[in-house]
Amino acid sequence: MKVDFALVGVGGQGIVLASDLLAAVGLAAGYDVKKTDSLGMSQRGGSVVSFVRWGERVRSPLPAAGACDVLVALEKLEAARGAVLVRPGGLVVISDHTIRPPSVNSGSERYPTDEEVSRLFVERAVEARFVRGPALAEELGNPRVVNVVLLGFVAASLPLRYALWEETLASMLPERIRQVNLRALERGRAEWEGRVGVLG
Length: 200
Fold this sequence. Notes:
This protein is of the alpha/beta class. It has a single domain, classed as Pyruvate-ferredoxin Oxidoreductase, domain 3, CATH 3.40.920. 40% of the residues lie in helices and 22% in strands. The chain has helices at residues 15-28, 76-81, 102-105, 114-123, 133-139, 146-157, 162-172, 175-191, and strands at 3-10, 32-38, 47-55, 68-73, 86-95, 127-131. It has a six-stranded mixed beta sheet with strand order 2-3-1-4-5-6, sandwiched between helices. Helix 5 packs across helix 6, helix 6 (146-157) packs across helix 8 and helix 7 runs antiparallel to helix 8 (175-191). The protein is globular. The chain starts with a strand and ends in a 9-residue tail after the last helix. The relative contact order is 0.16. Residues 194-200 have low confidence and may be disordered.
């Protein structure tokens, strides 16, 4: 199995931690793994993009343009911006989260509707799934675990042993936040509604 992931969001949403987890899971599964992060103005709430690649042999940390198998978007406008990254037939997991940039707040630009975001992926023959990321994280008592909720959704879509995700996550996190993140991973998996193997 070869899988190229792109993760998009804004600074402070945990994109780098999520990409670190994806890389660690790939290594634990026995794949060659490459990873790169583009942080930009992340400290000011700017766009953050990470790429993680799994394969038998991965030569470059950057996938070919428009060739990612999975796009994980922690914010809807960033999902729209990242539409060009994913291949036809790929999977997009979008957190139902709106962060309005200054250009939208000033009225110089318009924030896209959910329908417009979805249409971008329909036109590219990509399966786009919205996930109640913020709501599920709030139910777990920690709004910072949205990134792991989305990874749980991704975990259910891939033909890897789920326990590998749990074991890897548990090994990466300090005890004080380990259990809530493991619950977040499981909640994301439950949101997939048992539909395993779309990329297998």
